[in-house]
Structure formats: structure tokens, C-alpha cells
Amino acid sequence: MGVDPGLTRCGLSMIDMTATRKASFINVGIAGTAAAEPLDERILRIFTVTQTWLDTYQPDALAIERIFAQEQVNTVIGTAHASGAVISAAAVRGIPVFFHTPSEVKAAVTGSGRADKASVGRMVTKILGLEKIPKPADAADALAIAICHGWRGGGIGSGINMSANTQTHQGSRPVRAQHAKLTPAQRIWLEAEAKTRR
Amino acid sequence: MGVDPGLTRCGLSMIDMTATRKASFINVGIAGTAAAEPLDERILRIFTVTQTWLDTYQPDALAIERIFAQEQVNTVIGTAHASGAVISAAAVRGIPVFFHTPSEVKAAVTGSGRADKASVGRMVTKILGLEKIPKPADAADALAIAICHGWRGGGIGSGINMSANTQTHQGSRPVRAQHAKLTPAQRIWLEAEAKTRR
């Protein structure tokens, strides 16, 4: 699951990543709140929508943007509030949370850490074989974060990949560290992988 | 319940506020995490400690500092993450959340919006009749936020006070707005108040 955190528009995405790093689309959406709403109601909405996604899809991991102080500071505060809600919802369920910076996400999907939003949208569309670019940009960004995570590390298709014909990849976590905390889905996947190789 | 949000030291406090604005101490504590811990684990700790307090004391309201961009921006991001976790935990339980700025809190307990931490600590100690100043400052601040909320508005002793001999107060919410969403404890209190007046 990938999340582009925000109070006004929080992008949520779900993808599947195979052992050979093939990404496929499952769902994408936006949890939106109005600036006029009370802050606690805005945060609650983000929290409950995230809960629903987590309980519906039971992802192996949640990847979210690491927030830096690049934007306008008031936007950053709202984004960090939303992020705190999303991370709480995942962590309390025992779902591992991973952080990627915007430039890591851009670099993963376009090859350039400085790519613009349009390029990210086009590449996400191409990678997932979608018919059109997901809108708004927060939806495309949420998918990009999920793809980035699957490719860079911690995902089923990278860090814990045990198959012989794996592509090389950079930035993934050490295999041993991943093995230490496999989710039930990852164990099932590893068993299926092992059978295929026999 | 009052919360001074933070990732390194999150101050938590519980007080009782009577109809005549008399505040009494129930508990104070710190949820602390180390900067070296993974961000999701730090946020989870703040979330679960808050949950425990909420479930133990079932407060009528949670008051928390409204975050502004006055501090160092990286501190603000961590504080907003913690705040998002605390607000989620309260809001998902239907506990109303209220925000007060640091200067509102200082003004409420010391009379000056520019009071230093030592003055806030001394006044909190005096108001609650404690034997010594709560340490660290985050603990005293959490108590100050709770006191501020009880006095300024939204608390049982102010906004919804129906007794005839109420002191005047400033900054409270309109009585009607409060009546619209009374908690069970507030209803019990109002009934008890009504009986006393007969």
C-alpha cells in the first residue's frame, strides 16, 4: 500500500508486486477533507479511511512519503498530522511502515529524482498498464510510492526475493533483516516460490 | 485530558474540573521515544500510550496544543506526527478534541501569554495544590493545557455550566453548541447539578 499523505487530499493506493518486480494495479483513491472542517474531524477521516483500506486489503507493507521541510510550513504541519494518523493505523495493526523521500520515489519510477508530476503520472500509467493517467496527482503519487517501495526494498519482490533469476536492485534492505519478520502473506509467497523451483 | 504533543517527550495529563472551575489533579506522565528509533515505532508508542490513558480515564474532552510554525521546522514535523496520532486515538473514540495555542495556555494559567516555562510550572503547581513542580516541563505544560481548556471553554466547568452562581468566563464556546453534543459524563453531571439546585 502506498500513501501520499495530506489533509486536503491524501492519496491511497494498493498494488501487487511479483517476484520478478512486475507491478499490477489493485486500487487507488483519495481521502479528502475541507480546510473549513475542524482539524480533529479531518484527521479522523484520514485515519478511518486508512483503517478501511488496511482491513480490506491487508497489505504486507505500507509505504509513505517521508516529510521534509521543503514545502510551505503550514502545509507541512497538515501533512505531518495526516501522516501521523496513517502511520498509527498501520503500526497498531502490525503492518510494517516504510518511508521514501519524494526524490527517491521520482527516481524509482522515472529515473530522475527531479522529474515533474506529469512525468511521474505518465510512468505510473505505463508501469501499471493503465488506460489513462490517474487523477489527481496525489493518486498517481500514491501509486508511485507503492511502486518505489516494491522496487527499492522491503517489498516481496525485492528484499526477500529468493528466486534464482532475480534482477539486481539497489537500496533494498538486507535479506536477513527481512526474513526476521515475514508476514503470513510473505511466507505463503515464499513457499509458493520454492515449489515453483522444484 | 491535556496533551503537550511531541515525539521525544509527549506530556499527558488528566485533571477534574468542577462547575465552580476548581481544578484537581488526577495524573500526569510522559510518553517518551528515542530519536534513534524508527519513526513508525515512535508514532505507535505515542498512539498506544494515548489509547491507554483514554481507555483508563475516559475523559470528557481532550485538549491539545495547536501547532504553529514557530519552532525549528524539523521539530514541528515530529510534533505534528505525534499530534496526528493523539488526535486519531481520541477522535476514533468519539472524544471531542479541542485546540489551544501556547500563548492561550500561558495566558490562562499565568495571566500572561508570554510567561516562561518556570512561571507556568509554578502556577500549575499552585492551581492544583501540588507539593512540587511537575517535571519535566512537558508534564507541567500538559497540565496547563488541561487547566486552560477547563477554564476557557468546552469543559464541564465552563461552556455547559448551568448553575446559577457561575463565575463569568471568557473564551468559552456558546452554551448551545456544547449542549448539542453532551457526553454521558456531562449529562450525569448536569443532572446532578440540577438536583443540587432544587
Automatic annotation (TrEMBL), chains A, B:
Subcellular locations according to the entry: Cytoplasm
EC nos: 3.1.21.10
Bound cofactor: record note: Binds 2 Mg(2+) ion per subunit.
Binding-site residues, Mg(2+) 1: 4, 138
Pfam families according to UniProt: RuvC
Classification via InterPro entries: RNaseH-like_sf, RNaseH_sf, X-over_junc_endoDNase_RuvC
This protein's GO CC annotations: cytoplasm; Holliday junction resolvase complex
Signal sequence coordinates: none
Cofactor: Mg(2+)
Active site: 4, 65, 138
Broad class of where this protein is predominantly found: cytoplasm
Binding site for Mg(2+) 2: 65
GO molecular function: crossover junction DNA endonuclease activity; DNA binding; magnesium ion binding
Keywords attached to this entry: Cytoplasm, DNA damage, DNA recombination, DNA repair, DNA-binding, Endonuclease, Hydrolase, Magnesium, Metal-binding, Nuclease
One GO process term, biological-process aspect: DNA repair
Catalytic activity entry: Endonucleolytic cleavage at a junction such as a reciprocal single-stranded crossover between two homologous DNA duplexes (Holliday junction)
The protein's assembly and partners: Homodimer which binds Holliday junction (HJ) DNA. The HJ becomes 2-fold symmetrical on binding to RuvC with unstacked arms; it has a different conformation from HJ DNA in complex with RuvA. In the full resolvosome a probable DNA-RuvA(4)-RuvB(12)-RuvC(2) complex forms which resolves the HJ.
Family: Belongs to the RuvC family.
Function: The RuvA-RuvB-RuvC complex processes Holliday junction (HJ) DNA during genetic recombination and DNA repair. Endonuclease that resolves HJ intermediates. Cleaves cruciform DNA by making single-stranded nicks across the HJ at symmetrical positions within the homologous arms, yielding a 5'-phosphate and a 3'-hydroxyl group; requires a central core of homology in the junction. The consensus cleavage sequence is 5'-(A/T)TT(C/G)-3'. Cleavage occurs on the 3'-side of the TT dinucleotide at the point of strand exchange.
NCBIfam families the UniProt entry points to: ruvC (TIGR00228)
Annotated protein name in UniProt: Crossover junction endodeoxyribonuclease RuvC
Biological source species: Rothia dentocariosa
